User: Fold this.
Amino acid sequence: MDLAAAQVIAAGLMLGFAGFGTAIGFGLLGGRFLESTARQPEMANVLQAKMFLIAGLLDAFSAIAVAIGLYFVFA
Amino acid sequence: MASGETQTASEYIQHHLTNLTFGLHPENGLSFAHGAAEAKDMGFMAIHVDSMFWAILLGSIFCWVFYSAAQRASAGVPSGLQNFVEMIVEFVDNSVRDAFHRENVFVACLALTIFVWVFLMNLMDLVPVDFLPELAMALGIEYQKVVPTTDVNVTLGMSLSVFLLIIYTSIKSKGFGGFVGELTLQPFGKWFIPFNFFLEFVGLVAKPISLALRLFGNLYAGELIFILIALLPWFIQPVLSVPWAIFHILVIVLQAFIFMTLTIVYLSMAEESH
Assistant:
């Protein structure tokens, strides 16, 4: 297998795993957020700010993987 | 992609991802680099002029706007600019109050600077990808990368400053002995010092690196996707770039907010004793 093909496969795996992990993470995060606001609606604003903070943290490492993956494919 | 006929797609992307580098080249002397290979030859001491320029320019704009708002501040009904600045300051102030364990003016100022500065640097991502590089090209500047936070040097520089502050606050509040003790005596007590040190040291060093790479990775991925969209035929571009830009507004504010919040939390953790 030549290097270019290996790079494309590696990039595909990176993008795939990044998407996979983030999807699970966001599912858990959003689900728990809805659950806890249903239980305590008065906490909704505080929880929303915290949820976005964690969403950003969650996003970060998959975004790094996506950046490196796309870099491998196109540049 | 105005000059697209003579470039391949990969060259176009490479061009957009190369910084304007200034440094001491072994053959050409003190000069700007023509291409990535030459920039690499310049070694460690080369400077990314474009990142520095935009970062300092945006920092000056931030200082100037906030200073002029403070100069013209009145106790009566606030004007538009004053209202806007007050809103940001209050937002940052509330975040510091929530996340930091006591009143601290220094941390509040630091948080405000980080938030607004990172936000402005991220905001450059929404400038059309070809606009400023083409403008620079017309002025005879070969490379131009306009988003400072897509340069890992900028984000690492910021996070290393935060790291030094973490160590400083830690030593200041607990003494040098307390700082070393925290690094070596937990979680398993004094008979496991090398193991404890390994665990705590990795935890300490991971803070600045994750802080920098998180910001860099998000913005780099965003910029790369904008560049890829710019490679498509012109009639498809708006369909993709507009939704991505709208989504990206969220990312821009969120990443600035996260950088700020984590700085506050890390400093708060450094000051509290366990």
User: Anything to note?
Assistant: The radius of gyration of chain A is 17 Å. The CA atoms of residues 18 and 45 of chain A lie 29 Å apart.
